[in-house]
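INTERNAL TRANSFER SHEET
From: sequence group
To: structure group
Subject: Gluconate 5-dehydrogenase

Please process the attached sequence and return the structure record in the designated field. Keep the field labels unchanged so the import script can parse them.
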Amino acid sequence: MTPMELFGLKGKVAVVTGATGRLGQVMASALAGAGATTWLVGRDQGRLDALASRLDGDCVPARCDVTSDEDVAALGARLREDGGRVDVLVHNAHVGRGGSLRTATPGDYLEAADLAFAAFQRLLGATRDLLVTAAADSSPSVVVVASMYGLVSPKPQLYASPEAGNPPYYGAVKAGLVQLTRYAAVELGPAGVRVNCVTPGPFPGEGGDPELLARLAQQTPLGRVGDPAEIATTLLYLASPRSSFTTGANVVVDGGWTAW
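Return from structure group:
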């Protein structure tokens, strides 16, 4: 069978939050390339429009602040009016900056929790009926994006300064998302909706500090950092009906970083 026959999503509707982020773009591209009508969700309409113009496939740029009850409710209403179903929901929005315990503030933790936990609750509240509708003839999938830093702590010596590494509130909420995935999988399973988590390891992207990239690569048994395509294929597996008996799982894609 061809990859499209195995993991094709033609006729499906996918929603990706944090779509203009580094990994968000990769995941949105994979879903659109597999044939799904892919809703690109983020705060900046201009960036969303630009991303939609670059991607192959049917993409809908949809400005939505996932920390806003009104915005998320409006997104749900648009989805309901457009097709009345959601087959894939990817919760990827997060706080993307460095920091340490010394520089973190209580407000940082609240902001991170809002983007991780409260946003998940809003999104699920706005799309639960659309996911259940899709379950009548498909195997709808919610994919939560965590991080290896939800499983282990960053090694400060890898970074130029403590403030250059991932901040503690980032790792704390990513750890919580792994457990939230289990709760959601148990609750939504009887309705035919699957919920899984993907935990990326070092995916620093292009144009980074070569010395930092080398240090990160040394932390994996495979001796390298990840290629974005390696997240895309994992997402397609979890999004497609090929993983129809997989729910409540945390798929770690980290080159073995957390194995030693």
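Handover comment: The mean pLDDT is 94. The longest strand covers residues 194-200.
Transfer complete.
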